[in-house]
């Protein structure tokens, strides 16, 4: 519900973190976009933006819209964050510069190129194993979760055990960017245990001698970052790198399972795998939202957001803004999804995007080689999260060549 | 000085905010001009960090690299300071003698091979125009809450640019004009290795050798330096269209001066996935099979650019008439 007044900022009484809107955010996102460039959410007293242009400019403008006060609803200048802030996600220049530089090199397309044959192999073995079993299965557990959990912790260099802690940790972390609602309360009891486990993985001793983790620690030997920063940067990989990719792979699998013609197109031209993944990220926006905080009074399209206020950027709404995208709700492999904001934009743009693309690319390619058709065999169900758009389960049926 | 009229060559009509206009030119020391640059359309310039440089494509076609010495938080303006090198190969003379407010220049980068890494304290040493990358570092050191001191060497005070901007917060600044004070005992001034201190030096080769000598026993990475005479490209940038051929196909696309390679390919129905469209994120990395790329990205090191085996078509172009890429 939205009331617009020519003299004041548009207001909305919707609660985007309610179970109802998290279950299906699309109608709300349309109301948000249509209400204006900047809309005040009355429930929380924060500002929101859902139009592509506005979201994109806010993402680029780190000067006016800072991250160091937290990219969730909590204002770090007033309230203590529940865990030590991220050195990347929750930092502004110049503090952001060195950790970003180090991680960007370690995760660059050139550095991770050597992983491609390894992951392609892993993907083929996973698919081979899978199709030996029943051809009806849950695509979330058997593919979307299974593959990243198989390859990513190895690439970081995590020791073998308890890797399944990664998912609930990420799930809780991404919930905490929202208000302290039922989702945060559900996750809170396990949070200290999971946090302690994640922190314990980040020390130099517990990480393998090769991998992203070891590369981060090697940067301390060159003085590029300090030994105090290294464990927190490893933590960034474990926080931001698992659930995001799982749900992005879930998104691309769902898109194919519901668009058989697009699956056929992919099988005819496997090079479309890369585009398919970014198109699915545009469509589904596994990371739906992030906050910023204004560093001064900022006027956007006639609306002034006062200094020190939280702004909620709806990446998902921007990625379906009809002002920017033709037929925004279609999953369409003839579309060029370049410029979507599903990985963010600007200095905080996802530093792990090439890793995510490689994971998804190798998996989708392996599937396309063996699987002739993929379709839903029952209604999929959502997993609610304050930040992520996720599937809890997705029953599918496949046929083989 | 009378404003010369040169019509900007077509190469300067760069796409995606890659042409800049000179908005201010001021003599700030003997033989040093400060130049302020903005985007023609007034839009946001690519972000940079202290120590970064840009490629400046001058209206006479030559390309020169200059350290940025403004404020990284100012998204609308770049500032560089240029020493007139009479014996140089003409880039700085062109800037001093001919470049005027209102002229257009092309932009490559920014790139940073001289990044400021975290440290409890910093020892900055600059010689002459080598002060330019150091100045933004002083502000960053302040913002990081680190201690710092600066030694600024020059021939004499009149040649030392930016002196009045060096009193930044808590740092200790030593100006050392050789004409008044003679040689400085550099090793003594730097002191002995200390895990909490990193040394940053920028200046002429001779100074950097002295710094290297004085810090032989230091841990690598704790002493970082940049020569201010970096790579230069002398042959004029091509002002004419070139062709991009897709390897293994007979698809050839013409790229005019006003469009990016990615946009030209898109127009021909070949989509290369791009993301930042600024040569920063690396999403559009494309293999170059033959031809000579004209690199404008912020990603590759000098050596990687020189290898010429890949480029980023959202910003980079071609020096040769034809470039063959694999997509
Ligand atoms: C498809 C999967 C993924 C999605 C949708 C995604 C999304 C995002 C988004 C939207 C941001 C920007 C946050 C902001 O602007 O405040 C971001 C930042 C980040 N991502 Fe990802 N991400 C994914 C995978 C990964 C992976 C695999 C890694 C690690 C290997 C990773 C590590 C990070 C880090 C460390 C940041 C913070 C960067 C900074 O602030 O400079 N992400 N991600």
TrEMBL record, chain A:
InterPro entries recorded: Cyt_P450, Cyt_P450_CS, Cyt_P450_sf
MF annotations from Gene Ontology: heme binding; iron ion binding; monooxygenase activity; oxidoreductase activity, acting on paired donors, with incorporation or reduction of molecular oxygen
Record keyword Ribonucleoprotein present: no
Annotated SUPFAM superfamilies: Cytochrome P450
Annotated CDD domains: CYP199A2-like (cd11037)
Alphabetical keyword list: Heme, Iron, Metal-binding, Monooxygenase, Oxidoreductase
Domain of life: Bacteria
Signal peptide location: none
Family: Belongs to the cytochrome P450 family.
Alphabetical list of PANTHER family matching this protein: CYTOCHROME P450 YJIB-RELATED, P450, PUTATIVE (EUROFUNG)-RELATED
Protein name, as recorded: Cytochrome P450
Automatic annotation (TrEMBL), chain B:
Annotated 2Fe-2S ferredoxin-type domain residues: 242-327
CDD domains to which the protein is assigned, alphabetical: fer2, PDR_like
Cofactor: FAD
Keyword rRNA processing part of the UniProt annotation: no
UniProt entry keywords in alphabetical sequence: 2Fe-2S, Flavoprotein, Iron, Iron-sulfur, Metal-binding, Oxidoreductase
PANTHER family, per the entry: CARNITINE MONOOXYGENASE REDUCTASE SUBUNIT, NADH OXIDOREDUCTASE HCR
Protein name per the record: Oxidoreductase
Organism encoding this protein: Orlajensenia leifsoniae
